[in-house]
Amino acid sequence: MPDTHVKPGWTGRFFEDFAVGDIYKHVLGRTVTATDNAWFTLLTQNTAPLHFDVNYASQTQFGRPLVNSCFTIALVTGQTVSDISQNVFANLGWDEVRMPHPLFEGDTVYSESEVVDKRESKSRPDVGVLTVKTIGYNQNGDIIISFRRTLLVYRRGQGPSGRYRPEPKNAA
Predict the structure, then answer these.
(1) pLDDT score, position 163
(2) What is the pLDDT of residue 162?
């Protein structure tokens, strides 16, 4: 007999759930630490001391390390996943990436996205093409990044969603 107390978790939106003009204010904020910045910078072999050498950075117009811009785009994209791309088939690209205000260690990042285009896929009937414009901003409301992202999103009932998770075995 099925357990009537089990409630399904959030499985994300499918292509049919989006409409041009929808705006999603992504729920999670994230404070960036010096460790985040240094590890990401060194893991990606970025040798610019502006990101990991406090003494060097103190001698620039910023006076302190800047957060690696590739970390910034990765973080803000990640913040959008639960609302936009939980059911992604593939990202097709990021366009019009702009970083109008620096992001510093200790800043907290928030983001929101607007659906700017939605169309059927011409080659894949199981997905649709979605384009969103996303902004990321700090705790003061300063926009630190904006970009357009185009992705393929599964249609409802397509893709691995709901089929990949096994049920637990009975304990003896």
Answers:
(1) 63
(2) 60
Nearest to 48, CA basis, from 69, 74, 32, 77:
69
Output the pTM of the full model: 0.88
- Both tokens of 18, joined, read 């989006």
CATH 3.10.129.10 fits 15-154, yes or no: yes
Q: How far is CA 133 from CA 8, 65, 147, in A?
A: 30, 28, 6
Residue 98: which pLDDT band, with cuts at 50, 70 and 90? very high
The full DSSP string for the chain is: ---TT--PPP----GGG--TT-EEE-S--EEPPHHHHHHHHHHTT---GGGT-HHHHHTSTTSSPBPPHHHHHHHHHHHHIIIIITTEEEEEEEEEEE--S--BTT-EEEEEEEEEEEEE-SS-TTEEEEEEEEEEE-TT--EEEEEEEEEEEEPTT-SSTTTSPPPPPPP-
In whole angstroms, give the CA distance from residue 88 to residue 14: 9
143: nearest Cα among 114, 102, 97: 102
